[in-house]
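Hey all, sorry for the wall of text incoming. These are the two entities for the joint prediction.
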Amino acid sequence: MTADNMDYVDVSSDHGSHPLGRRLTVAACVLCVVILVFALGGCWDARDIDHIGFIMGMGVDESDDGKIVVWVQMALPSSGPEGAANTPAWLGSAAGNTMMDAMSALRMKSAKTLFRGHVKVLVIGEKIARKGLTPILDYLARDSQFRYNSWVLVTSDPVGKIFEVEADQENMASSYINLMMRHATLSSVAPQSRFRDLLSTAAEPGDQPVLARVSLVKSEPEEEEGEQDEAQQGVWGQRTGNEGGKGKKGDVETKSDIEISGSAALHGDLVVGWLDPVQTAMVLMARNRLKEYSFLHMVPGTEGDTVGVKVLHSRATIELPPRHKMTRTGLRGAEVRIRVTGCVYIEEVMSEEQFVSIEADRNLSRGVSDQIEAEMESLIEIAQNRLGTDIFGIGEAVRRCISSDVWEDEIAPIWRDIFKEIKIIPEVSLKVERQGTTMTSPRPQA
Amino acid sequence: MLVAVIVFSTGFLAAARLLTPVAGTAAWISVLLGGVIGLVIAWLVGSVSSAFPEQNLVKIAEDIFGKPFGKVIGLTFALYCTVVVVLGTREFVLAISISFLERTPFYVTTAVFFILASYAAYLGIEAIARVCFIFFGVVIISIAILGVFAIPVLVPGRLLPLAGRGVIPIMRAALLTASYTGEAIVSLAFLRHLKDKRHVSRAVGTGVAIGTAIMAMTVAYGIMMLGTGGISRVTYPAVETARMVGAGEFLERGEILFLALWFSVAILKLASVFYAAITAIADLLNLDNYRRLILPFGIISMVLSSIPANVAQSFAAVEYFLKYTVWYAIALPALLLIGARVLRHEKGGTPDDSR
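and here's what came out:
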């Protein structure tokens, strides 16, 4: 039914012909215009931008006395030239019995309205993460201002110290973490853990999320240049017990920096353990979320020769037992295969062998596949025995194959136990597809 | 287009939340099956309209069943339209208030809705249809943009197993959806204004099909983005899916833009149902000019729409509406059609000849 198909309906009949009716119409129109003048101008319920504090980063952890502590990093836009302002951000914190309580306490410390519509990162401390994220998720999921695209990271370092870091590239830690997360997720050293991903997977027992890990690391010393190498190699923070944005190690004053690598594995709303960058990449590969992944492959039969390869495309499929065996008893001890296929790109060759022959190429493909397979086996062992959480999404694959009622009533409640008893076998088959713009390494002659 | 707008524009906000707990991952299939029932209703509506091309519903009922029973049928229709207006308004006002206008009192947003709907009803169905002609395309484009930007966030595997909780739950959810598609019976109030009355069933059916397709897509996207667990948790899945979508760093919080556009079609739906209600009441009361009813009906509807005090009460009312009104939506045109056939058989000619 379109407008062109409609008859004209007379709208003028019986109205406006009477002088009183006409005057009332004019009066109503004038009244509407007057109301609109005020309403459209924002005179009602207006909020001046100067009075709004744009929160760029939020942090949550638990204090020693069991209270929830919330940190907010608020941008303080300067009217002067860029970089003129000494304090680009305000970091505030408050404690409370719940998230709402802490946020209410925080509001009392800020002269500006706390606006959560620009939050780029949410950093969660290990202490509260191990006790459960539900109090945080509940508050933020109900909040219409909070952005679903915000990054969610977990740290074992003091949350406040993370936000105190002033990197050379970016003054505000929140913006710095936001930029770093973009690169970290592209290179698969950290998972793409946005708030929306956490929300959509946390409730699925067979599809447990992994969250990116942020850590404090020791940056170069500010005074003694000779100590630079030593300082760069050390890891500050949770591994050395750093207590501030800046600290002293021996006689050398050090500056903290931020590192994003690895991830935290969750079971439900609990963080149950940490995964290093390699393990994180394996999880992402098994779940078809790997963007690209570079690693060094030791050439067998040589003394330390290496080939740098990058996994460009990979595809993982989970091969489950036959459908009739997918019951709460049939799945226990059942064999599940994770088949990974893909191609790799040679980025660097530190070996006499240049991998130009078909045989060498085939050996490299097999070697690279074996290496990934071994790393995946190690991860499976960790997931089943140490973490006890289905980070591979095998449960989700099972859910897709069976009736919803069977999954929800029979299998999902005990999936964690079933997962630990499944025999998971990785089968990796990567092929060398690209070798760069040169076939052999340049060999300068003296 | 107007029928499509009537079918989807308010229901699609929360349809996924109401259907997914019933049908599970197959909720989108239930919507399509509900659309099939809607097509049957559209055929019935079209057949009744073709039999009485120049009459409104109340007059049709009076011609077939006599004045007293015809008035009763007309009264039920007016009540049905009132419930649709009241619940539809409340649902949209709550969606806007919870998501964006946190500090704006409900009655202010409701008043804006009713002022606009009243003004549109005052101008008549042609004005509503012409505005719909403009906004419908814009809204379709907005949903298409949302669909494209949502692709990176989609997990198609979440739609599995296709059969969800089984055949019976799918059919139960399909009946619930048919309550949305059954809202096409509102068009009985204004189909006589169509210039070309030869293909009324096709026109109404097309509207139902488009509305159903949009609802099915919304439900499927909701499941793919939030999962069945997540979608049962959120208040308005359509708004939540829009919140999840972002195109890089340059287009975030797009849900505000989308909801503003959806607001426009919701107004058009409410205006057309508002128009249907007051023209039915005018026919019941034998009033020459339906416009005299705009102010009292608008005020009464506004008050009624304020009765569900919160989302929980609003959803409870919507669930009742979905559970029972499908039967009314099927029975009304079926009864009229059967009556018209019997009348024609008795008189030996077309129902029009009998008048």
